[in-house]
From TrEMBL:
Active site: H149 (proton acceptor)
Positions of region (Disordered): 317-347
Gene Ontology BP term (one): regulation of multicellular organismal process
Protein name: NAD-dependent protein deacetylase
Length: 347
């Protein structure tokens, strides 16, 4: 086996890298961050970081979205995000979009932990599969983010000649007020329609995903992977794009991204290796993303700051929501008053 390993390693360029962490634990990762040599952190995240905000993930048995789509009568669960199916039957997607539309959920501890990494100058970028925009709500900006599967944040006219951008507020009122059927997406490309910037199965990821990934991953000092089953490509294979020495921390309810085809058993890489006797850089912290981030924050001495940030930001969101509700209530009572005035006059 040793002979084969060294032969394959040399042939495939998969020889193991330097051991950077003094221990394959969360403590080891925290000591590495505190050492000052870890300057470029990339986060890779998925639906599991938003479940505590009230948004279901996709594949968790029982609670995941794919287990709860019976009412849409789909041929198979993933069809809801399949571009060919959507072009013929857009209604299920839009019904779901109405249920999950941003603005009804608050970012989680995990989202704010990433914001802290940004504020401390440690976040190279967050690669997200989520379309819920909670990273932005938590304070990450366009430059900090790759929304690999698109986002509800923007929408564009799908006509190549037009590409006009529509604001999230305008789109929101259209989606929530059930006016989406007016868009006549199924007649594309014969009518000038707009569309959400969401990547469906069967569509390309944004070009920026590919250009930025080539720049970011080779210089990454620590990859933190959170709340994802790492089952969808090409996103999942990003874990293999960091250098052989770069430590990878998974914070998730279950172990994911482990080596396929037994490659890990031979120590060849090709995925995460938490448990084999060749493991040297991958750490799995099995917990909720929020608990994992809070535990890491505590080891880094950032716990009070993180708790304070979550409290302050949530209070801000609550007060904005209250103001919006007041405004809406005032507008509707004014328009009811105007209607009553009109009917008084006609009487
Ligand atoms: P999945 O639903 O496949 O995986 C979510 C992962 O998060 C699972 O491993 C869960 O165990 C874990 N999890 C759930 N709640 C958690 C919590 N509170 N704390 C920690 N872990 C938790 O979601 P994704 O990996 O994001 O694509 O799915 C990837 C892509 O598949 C999505 O972007 C979507 C979907 O089809 C498109 O729509 C194109």
């Amino acid at each position: 086996v040793d002979f084969l390993r060294s032969l394959f390693s040399r042939t495939l360029g998969l020889s193991p890298g330097e051991k950077v962490l003094d221990e394959l634990t969360l403590d080891g990762v925290a000591r590495y961050i505190l050492s000052g040599t870890c300057k470029n952190i990339i986060c890779m995240v998925g639906a599991g970081i938003s479940t505590s905000a009230g948004i279901p993930d996709f594949r968790s048995p029982g609670t995941g979205l794919y287990a709860n789509l019976q009412k849409y009568n789909l041929p198979y669960p993933e069809a809801i995000f399949q571009i060919d199916y959507f072009k013929k039957h857009p209604e299920p997607f839009f019904a779901l979009a109405r249920e999950l539309y941003p603005g009804q959920f608050k970012p989680t501890v995990c989202h704010y932990f990433m914001r802290m990494l940004k504020d401390k100058g440690l976040l190279t970028r967050c690669y997200s599969q989520n379309i819920d925009t909670l990273e932005r709500v938590a304070g990450l900006e366009g430059e900090d983010l790759i929304e690999a599967h698109g986002t509800f944040h923007t929408s564009h006219c799908v006509s190549f000649l037009c590409r006009k951008e529509y604001s999230m507020d305008w789109m929101k009122s259209t989606v929530l007020n059930d006016e989406i059927s007016l868009l006549n997406y199924s007649h594309f490309p014969f009518v000038d329609v707009f569309f959400l910037d969401i990547v469906f199965f069967g569509e390309n990821l944004p070009a920026r995903f590919f250009t930025t990934m080539k720049m970011d991953f080779p210089r990454c000092d620590l990859l933190i992977i959170m709340g994802t089953s790492l089952q969808v490509q090409p996103f999942a294979s990003l874990v293999n794009r960091v250098s052989n020495s770069c430590p990878r921390l998974l914070i998730n309810m279950e172990k994911t991204g482990q080596s396929e085809f037994g490659m890990g058993l031979f120590g060849f890489g090709g995925g995460m290796d938490f448990d084999s006797d060749k493991a040297y850089r991958d750490v799995a912290y099995l917990s909720t993303c929020d608990d994992g981030c809070m535990a890491l924050a505590e080891l880094l001495g950032w716990k009070a700051e993180l708790e304070e940030m979550v409290k302050r930001e949530h209070a801000l969101i609550d007060s904005k929501d209250a103001k919006t509700k007041d405004k809406e209530a005032n507008q509707s009572s004014r328009s009811t008053g105007a209607e009553a005035g009109k009917s008084d006059k006609t009487e």
